[in-house]
Amino acid sequence: MKVLVATEKPFAAVAVNGIRQVIEDAGYKLALLEKYASKQELLNAVADADAIIIRSDIVDQEVLDAAKNLKIVVRAGAGYDNIDLEASKAKGVVAQNTPGQNSNAVAELVFGMTVMAVRNMYNGTSGTELKGKKLGIHAFGQVGRNVARIAKGFEMEVSALDPYCPDEVITAAGVTPIHSVEELYSGNQFVSLHIPATAETKKSVGYDLITRLPKNGVLINTARKEVIDEEGLAKALEERPDIKYVADIKPDTAEELKAKFGDRVFFTPKKMGAQTAEANINAGIAAAHQIVAFFRDGINRFQVNK
Ligand code: 3PG
Q1: Phi, psi dihedrals of residue 116, rounded to the nearest 5°
Q2: SS3 (DSSP) at 220
Q3: Domain 103-267 class, CATH top level
Q4: Quick check: 300 and 115 in contact, CB under 8 A?
Q5: Using CA positions, which residue lies closest to atom 9 of ligand 1?
Q6: In the CATH hierarchy, which fold is given to the domain comprising 2-101+275-297?
Q7: What is the per-residue pLDDT for 83?
């Protein structure tokens, strides 16, 4: 049995060692393809893999066709918009994620970027504090819940919108449930995005919502660039010089936005929310265990392509 770890953005070495241990203890072989520069390298590497562990790596029809022995692909992380769910399902390949394993890392980065925004990118000028300010969490999944927990430490007033999450769960976390997206943006100076990229959410946050933000609004995006309507974002930033946008995902129009809005926008060069040793260990080793549990005991709890 061959398990391939295919990560264009590699895990920390300590996480790879942990994955190797789990895979080899089960009597399987581990292959590693890191920092690959072309799709062809991935196509070659998957040829004889029974299982693949990936991060944001694209698993599309072509990759599935090249992976003749493939039975399972595990996305070591939360979002699985990089896997062709229909194509994998049609091929009888199970797709799983590892929900929650990297969520604290992403949530901590939300505050890393938010503090940076309100302290004017640490340029030495007088900024503002987060204490007592209002934070709206757009989707109350694993990352959103961690963001709420940390926000409480900052003594922020926290509310959340999530039509898929019962109000009681939100209330139990000491967070106020909100039931309309307009209200979420109008009522909170800070809005942190945690919606997945789906057909329904793509380009769903644009001019109309962003311009609802109260004075000195900050939109924090550690979710996916695809959920932003970038044209609408640019228009909103143009009209509202008090608004800032900080993102862990470089927009398609990053250069234009940076040239026009300077320090009012910030983008990490590469998605790094989950790029911590802890998150790599948690998500990577969970993925390895899930593969072993799948082959040994038929456990398939985290399947996302049913
Ligand atoms: C996720 O969906 O788990 C995060 O966006 C992290 O993605 P990454 O593994 O590519 O860093």
Answers
A1: -60, -40
A2: strand
A3: alpha beta
A4: no
A5: 55
A6: Rossmann fold (3.40.50)
A7: 98
Confidence band for 249, pLDDT divided at 50, 70 and 90 = confident
Give the residue carrying structure tokens 């320090």: 263
Ligand 1: which atom is nearest the Cα of residue 76?
9
Is 2-101+275-297's fold the same as 103-267's? Answer: yes
**289-301 pLDDT per residue, tens:** 999 999 999 999 9
Q: Are 87 and 64 in contact (CB under 8 A)?
A: yes
Average pLDDT over residues 205-210: 98
Ligand 1 centroid distance, CA of 103 (Å): 9
Return the ligand 1 atom nearest residue 271 CA.
11
- Alpha-carbon dihedral 227, 232, 235, 240, rounded to 10 degrees: -60
Mean pLDDT, all residues of the chain: 98
Cα 279 to Cα 265: distance, rounded to the nearest angstrom: 26
The pLDDT tens digits of the residues spanning 132-179 come to 999 999 999 999 999 999 999 999 999 999 999 999 999 999 999 999
Q: Which one of 56, 195, 224, 225 would you pick to mutate in the ligand 1 pocket, going by the greatest count of ligand atoms within 8 A of its CB?
A: 56
How far is the C-alpha of 46 from the C-alpha of 69, rounded, in Å? 9
Q: Domain segments of the chain: what residues?
A: 2-101+275-297, 103-267
Does the pTM surpass 0.70? The reply is yes
